[in-house]
Amino acid sequence: MTASLTVIVPAVNEPSDVRKTLEALERERRATGVEAIVVSRLGAPVSTLVKASFPWARLIDVAPGTTIPAMRAIAFEQVTTPYVAVIEDHVAVPAGWVALMTAKARETGAIVGGPVDNLATVTLLDRAAFLCEYSHCMPPLPGGSTSWLPGNNVVYPADTARKHLELLRRGSWENDMHEAIKADGGSLVMVPEGVIGHDKHYSLWEYLSQRYLYSRSFAGKRGQQSSALKRLAYAAGSVILPPVLLLRIVSRVGARPDHRGTLLRSLPLIATFVVSWAAGELVGYLAGPGDSLGRVR
Q: Percent of the chain, pLDDT > 70?
């Protein structure tokens, strides 16, 4: 069976997370022949796992601290199939996802992506973290042409992706890559039935630190491209960011009756998360990104 799709999995979390993701892809592989490239900055624990349990997956070991965008760029260079997908090492693709997303990419000629649903529902902390980060990605989402796609559930024509590797090497995330693709005449299409499951469990400190690191990396990079006056203006704006973010999350999730109870119970946690988010932006604008991007998971 000749594969049409390669799935890129940057391994930055626990080996147990990587195992679950590859087990889901292995089930898809039996039906479609899908290929996978695991780019790992975790050393022996993941290398041993992949070689022993998933020898069909290609493994690329990179240095600790390699950023996730750079890991994606390294993997894109190794793709030989017509299409390439990017997911995370803590998501599960459902049965039929590979065939569906490949068919939609071929049919539309566009970059295609789908919603992200939560599989980590045992603790309130995990549910609150998901709502904080993915309230805009939850199903149902309208299908068809769109201005954005989730970065962890997206399929590209491989040739299109390779044209924009320099952005990733410089530390840009998928939103910048998608804007560049649109500027070149490409388009983005949402596939509402192409839902993947997000299965990440957090400690309180882990999630607070990850929100801080991601927002510091974002603000630090943005600040490097701005004048000193504009950086100060952005920093001042970050002071009022917590209520803005909280209102945005509440308005999105509150519109979904099946999530309102979880939202209400989660509000103290989400309020804490958005303070950490804003603190990261403040420090990023004032002090730069530091090594934050290489620590984002």
A: 100
Q: What is the pTM of this model?
A: 0.96
From the candidate CATH numbers 3.30.1310.20, 3.90.550.10, 1.10.260.40, 3.30.300.30, the one assigned to the domain spanning 5-198: 3.90.550.10
Domain locations in the chain? 5-198, 204-295
Q: What DSSP character marks residue 63? A: -
Tens-place pLDDT, residues 68-127: 999 999 999 999 999 999 999 999 999 999 999 999 999 999 999 999 999 999 999 999
- Show Cβ contacts of residue 202 under 8 Å, excluding neighbours closer than 6 positions: 125, 126, 129, 210
Q: Give the integer Cα–Cα distance in Å for 134 and 153.
A: 12
Q: Do residues 60 and 40 lie in contact, with contact meaning Cβ atoms separated by under 8 Å?
A: yes
- Please report which residue ranges of 60-202 form alpha helices under DSSP H: 68-76, 97-108, 124-134, 158-162, 165-169, 174-183
pLDDT of 209-238, one tens digit each?
999 999 999 999 999 999 999 999 999 999
d(CA 145, CA 21): 28
> What tokens were used for 14?
């626990």
Residue 99's identity, in one-letter code, is A
Residue type, 157: P
Q: Tokens 């529902």 map to which residue?
A: 121
State the SS3 of 216-274. HHHHHHHHHCCCHHHHHHHHHHHCCHHHHHHHHHHHHHHCCHHHHHHHHHHHHHHHHHH
pLDDT for 277 beyond 90: yes
